[in-house]
């Protein structure tokens, strides 16, 4: 197959790209290195074409799509690293998303796969677990608003699409959220804080397996990619400390959650299990260990957060 992957040097995009290359697909990646790293994909792989550019450029997206003629588009690129950078969030997430949807329609792309933030349901969800019937209420963050706009375009497009609304996806190459931040601060001997929030952390490799199946035709419409169970953020902290094999346990400060954070985000995975079958979820300790192994080799540059109050 021929697959166009946006953001293919990011955490999720690179994992999917590797799996596609391993099975012999032709992959074209559009990547601007906002948060992704070149070393996440192989050099000189015969199946891989890497276009260093932005999906916000409509002429570029049109040209690449019409020349490559992909069977599917896997749209992982997103802007989020500066919560005040509304300009780039709208350019990448809204304009870039719309560019890809139009290009997919105009070039008869058979399948479109998207990755949505659970923040599309807002920070005070009306139910727990959150079902797919929950209204979209993407208040409070430029990231959530702009990601939701793109998903809305996909949903009205008439394309054959799957949108995965994600729990917290972590593992090797993770540059945002608590995992790289914990690793970096602990390595530098700095104190960490953990909020009292709970999250469902899922391993990037588990998501990538489901994405490959979606590319190949499983599913249609919106799915929650989540295990259905949450853990305290402190449990992730403990898993990172354990993976780092420190002599002493660095005690974190426990803080109440801030006003733009959600106490828990539990996504109901029922429809996912119905259409994709029961899934195996990698245990948290193993996921944290895989992340720590990666950070030891490549560093934990990034540590981005789209939440304003974390520092
Ligand atoms: N990781 C999570 O927990 C999570 C949760 C919800 C949603 N998502 C979504 O999943 C997708 C992948 O997330 P990730 O964790 O791999 O993040 P990531 O930052 O590792 O990957 C995003 C990639 O997109 C690239 N990119 C950004 N702007 C671009 C542009 N204009 N043109 C081309 N490339 C561009 C970045 O350089 C990066 O390589 C994103 O769409 C994100 O919104 C992730």
Report on the structure:
It is a single chain. With 311 residues, the protein is of the alpha/beta class. It has 2 domains: 2-169 and 201-225, Rossmann fold; 172-199 and 230-265 and 283-298, UDP-galactose 4-epimerase, domain 1, CATH 3.90.25.10. Helices cover 37% and strands 17% of the residues. The protein has 9 helices and 13 strands. A 7-stranded parallel sheet has the order 3-2-1-4-5-6-11, with helices on both faces. Strands 7-10 form a two-stranded parallel ribbon. It has a two-stranded parallel sheet with strand order 8-13. Helix 3 links the parallel strand 4 (72-75) and strand 5. Helix 3 (86-106) packs parallel to helix 4 and helix 5 (178-187) crosses helix 9 (284-298). The longest helix is centred in the N-terminal third of the chain and has 21 residues, at 86-106. The relative contact order is 0.15. The model has no long low-confidence stretch (mean pLDDT 95). Nicotinamide-adenine-dinucleotide (NAD) binds at residues 6-7, 9-13, 30-36, 54-56, 76-79, 92, 96, 115, 117, 147, 166, 168-169, 175. Nicotinamide-adenine-dinucleotide binds at residues 6-7, 9-13, 30-36, 54-56, 76-79, 92, 96, 115, 117, 147, 166, 168-169, 175.
